[in-house]
Design goal:
single chain, alpha/beta, two-stranded parallel ribbon, globular
């Protein structure tokens, strides 16, 4: 056989192979999914609603999945009696991270000997404060406006109202002498019925009821935060136990990273966040549209500008611990470093 014949034969074989390959159905390679790092059930400090939009965004936008986590958010706190702080120390190994409503609850549990640490804060201040209708000269620019008025608040907050009155520079106000304190429910009905002048509210909750009445903040009502006068810092705090954080730092770090991504997403695109919140059972679009911008104001602070979202300042927490201990709200004072751990935040 000549060289030319061999070459022609080889070409024929290659053409046949090429034809067969071209007829073979093409399939895209299946991407290898990242293995699930940990299945987590996360008890919240209240109903699983738009209060926790950062975590819901992390869930729906896939931030938890990117970090290798399969997360279920569970309603808890006062809405169910399911205490997130106690739950993370229970028998269920999938419940090791929780989100109680306020740092003050974490400090109280820590003082009782509970193994709990706060690893990030969704909100930089407690949203609690005092709401009033702007009429007949009433204002809510600060606690000094309580003078001669009726203040309605939940009974578990009675203890600190005199400390608010004490901040007034010209005349320290005292309940029973300078203003009257009456018990409050969970809605500002006493304002609407003229039975109280000030109502202790959550700035990201009860003012919505007034807005539904057609009222406008700054025109028809106003509010000041307790945290602007007393050391009431940080709310919707992510917690775990020191033991779990030591044994599973990769899980804790992954959860915090995804939560921070969720916080940033809500800040960057509140409209999409409203869409996410509106898809949650029980959350109305009108409420989410009002709440998310109001809540975003508490997500950021001078501290977060310097240290990043979720950061908790040790000096502020120490002031809070000492204040609560000095006034009998926790058993004893302790070092803020024992309960605050910022090391799981991104970049730390």
């Amino acid at each position: 056989m000549s060289l030319r014949q061999c070459f022609r034969g080889l070409v024929s074989i290659l053409l046949v192979v090429a034809f067969l390959v071209s007829c073979t159905p093409k399939t895209n390679p299946t991407p290898t999914p990242r293995p699930v790092l940990k299945v987590l059930q996360v008890p919240l400090g209240w109903l699983n609603n738009d209060e926790f939009i950062a975590l819901q965004a992390a869930q729906q936008r896939g931030f938890f999945a990117e970090e290798g986590l399969d997360v279920t958010l569970v309603s808890g706190g006062g809405s169910t009696g399911f205490n997130p702080i106690l739950a993370i120390g229970g028998m269920d190994n999938s419940v090791r991270i929780g989100v109680p409503a306020a740092l003050s609850l974490v400090l109280s549990s820590k003082a009782e000997g509970t193994d709990v640490i706060a690893i990030a804060a969704l909100l930089q201040k407690e949203p609690s404060g005092f709401l009033t209708l702007i009429k007949n000269g009433r204002r809510a620019q600060g606690p000094c406006d309580f003078d001669g008025r009726i203040v309605s608040m939940q009974t578990d907050g009675f203890w600190y109202v005199d400390f608010l009155g004490a901040v007034c520079p010209n005349k320290q106000l005292k309940s029973g002498r300078d203003f009257t304190v009456i018990p409050a429910g969970w809605t500002p009905d006493c304002l609407l019925s003229n039975q109280c002048d000030y109502y202790c509210a959550w700035s990201t909750n009860q003012p919505f009821i007034l807005s539904q009445q057609g009222m406008v903040e700054g025109k028809d009502y106003e509010m000041f935060l307790t945290a602007d006068y007393l050391p009431f810092y940080y709310a919707d705090v992510i917690v775990t136990s020191r033991v779990y954080a030591t044994e599973h730092p990769e899980v804790v770090r992954a959860f915090v990273a995804a939560a921070v991504k969720g916080m940033q997403f809500v800040l960057d695109d509140p409209n999409k966040a409203i869409e996410i919140a509106s898809s949650i059972p029980g959350v109305e679009r009108e409420h989410a549209t009002w709440r998310i911008p109001a809540q975003n104001k508490l997500v950021v602070s001078e501290d977060t500008k310097e240290h990043g979202l979720g950061y908790m300042d040790l000096e502020k927490v120490q002031a809070m611990i000492d204040f609560l201990a000095a006034n009998g709200q926790i058993k004893t004072s302790f070092r803020a470093e024992e309960v605050i751990d910022n090391s799981f935040l991104p970049g730390k």
